[in-house]
Each structure stands twice: as structure tokens, then as C-alpha cells.
Amino acid sequence: MGDEIYIQAKRYGEVNNVSAADIRDLFGALNLKKAHKSIFITTSDFTLSAREMARNLGTRIVLINGTELAKLMLRYNTGSRDEQVLYLKKIDEEFFEN
Prior knowledge:
Helices cover 39% and strands 16% of the residues. It is α/β, with parallel strands linked by helices. The chain has a three-stranded parallel beta sheet.
């Protein structure tokens, strides 16, 4: 059986960043569940103190901000759609060898 991973997500505007207090709250919830892994996702960003808090805690908390979330959504085609497709062509040199 694999490890349980707890996820917390915050849909915040650009100016409302996740604070160290939010990370502490998640850490407290993880301790209650005796969990060791978590992902904290936000549409905004994390304050410097929040990043330091997550790094210094004994529990593994992965932080994903809005920019990283958008990149993941595009990479895995989740919540996005193709608007335009660009084809890159390369000359087939073997075609001319025979």
C-alpha cells in the first residue's frame, strides 16, 4: 500500500499570497492524521516565510504556485485546449538518397 498524500488548495488572487500561518495550519492537520506528505497548491504564490516554513518542517510539503500549476495543466492537457497547432517540418534526406 502506498503513502497517503494530503492536498490543500487555495484559489487566491494575485495579491493574496499563502502565508507561513497557512503552512503551519496544514502541518498541524498533517500531524493529527499522522501523515508525512502533502501538496499545497495555490493560484497565487507563497510568501518567502511560507516557503521557509515548508522547507524547515520535518514533514514533506510540496508547494505549487499559480505559475507552476499553469505549466502542469498545459503539460498534462488538464483544464486547457489546443488553440493552434504548429507543425515543425524537417527535410527527409533519405528521400533524396535513392
